[in-house]
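Let us practice reading a record.
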Amino acid sequence: MFKGKKTWLLSALFAFFGIFMFSGNSINAEAGVNDYIISNKIQPAKIQYREGTFSEWFGYENGVGKPEGVVVHETATPGVNAEQFVASFNNNWKTQETYVHAFTDDKQTINIHSADYGVWGAGPAANSKYIQIELCRVNGYDAFAHSIANDAFYVASKLIQYNLPDIPGQTVLSHHQVSLMYHQTTHVDPDTYFAAQGYSMDEMNSMISYYYNNLKSSGNVYGDANSGSNTNGSTTPSANVLHVNNPNGNYVPIMALKSDGTFANVRNRALMNNTDWQTDKTKESNGITYRRVATNEWVDTTYVV
């Protein structure tokens, strides 16, 4: 049975992390957050893949690896960053009865559950359909802009990975929209937080679309395939991170490992060009070496730069 509670035990969080109070937390709307991100070419943080402790492995209603979109949340807790929330969720999800795929703040994005499977973040109906990411509250204009860039990049990346169109209100939704759609939760995030920052979900959708369209056309968030930097702002990948690119196509194909040890093409999703992916396993088949980048998603190493 899918659980849908998103019960924040704020007193426990505050006791664990300490109470953080900020003044002047709103930003000046006149500057235009999206314009600020684009004009400064803020590079989104690379997505870190760290499998968490959530042990409820259930497919979406259309099957494993078949999400229908992404839900954008915000944590409603000032002063607690992505790393701290990851630790809290991994320790407390059984009692809080809530878990999401990823957390992002102004410095990093941490994916803690395979997006091939559902989580407990927005009620049973949404949990069986959508990838879900939490945006952490930050302090200051520049930090907010960086967090929005990170959030938008994650959403755009997942839409492309799962071969989904970018349709606000359908494949990209706020938790508030999900609450109104299914009436299984009463949350209104991220609307209140965005409004306090002079921002809106419509602007978030525009930022996601900007990244989505540029990534699909050029493999780079700012539309310049020859900029010399990776789309996620990383530099030289570590040994367990692959930088992939298909010089002869718009995407990097991925493969699924079959029970007989051979591989078959995954036709409903792919990896973006010029992106980094964490890998944990290597396997050879018919003279080709494959590296695993998700639960059962493997990439031919000829695409590894």
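A brief commentary: Residues 141-161 form the longest helix (21 residues).
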